[in-house]
Design a protein that fits this description.
mainly alpha
């Protein structure tokens, strides 16, 4: 995953720590939204994604959206996406940067795990399709 973090820092113009944090938050959302079977496919194709996803769960914040996500279980789906967006905004990322990070990450997951994996991820998270 280091090369994806590097690519994000270069393409988005953020430092490595913020890129790593953002990827962790997004992967945590993915992890909480997809089926166990899809998780197995993801983590077989991209083993380092599992560690980053668990780091993303340790990120506090999310403002009102994070609180709303927490009230509704904080899991995947629309509320989980709202909470993740809030965490990414609180980390200092704007919507354009978040979109670029999402595209780069989803393209990488597609390269490593196949288009079917990306399709399953996108179908599990409402609104994610605008990043591909």
């Amino acid at each position: 995953m280091d090369h994806i973090i590097t690519k994000i820092t270069e393409k988005v113009g953020i430092d490595k720590a913020l890129a790593t944090k953002a990827v962790g938050i997004i992967l945590n959302l993915v992890d909480s939204s997809i089926s166990d079977e899809t998780k197995e496919t993801l983590y077989t194709a991209v083993p380092a994604a599992k560690d980053l996803a668990s780091q993303g769960s340790d990120v506090s914040g999310g403002g009102l959206m994070g609180m709303a996500g927490g009230l509704f279980g904080g899991g995947g789906g629309a509320m989980g996406a709202m909470a993740a967006m809030g965490k990414l905004n609180d980390a200092g990322l704007d919507t354009d940067q978040i979109g670029k990070i999402g595209k780069i990450l989803l393209n990488h997951l597609g390269d490593e795990g196949g288009e079917e994996l990306v399709g399953e991820i996108v179908n599990a998270i409402p609104g994610l399709d605008r990043f591909i």
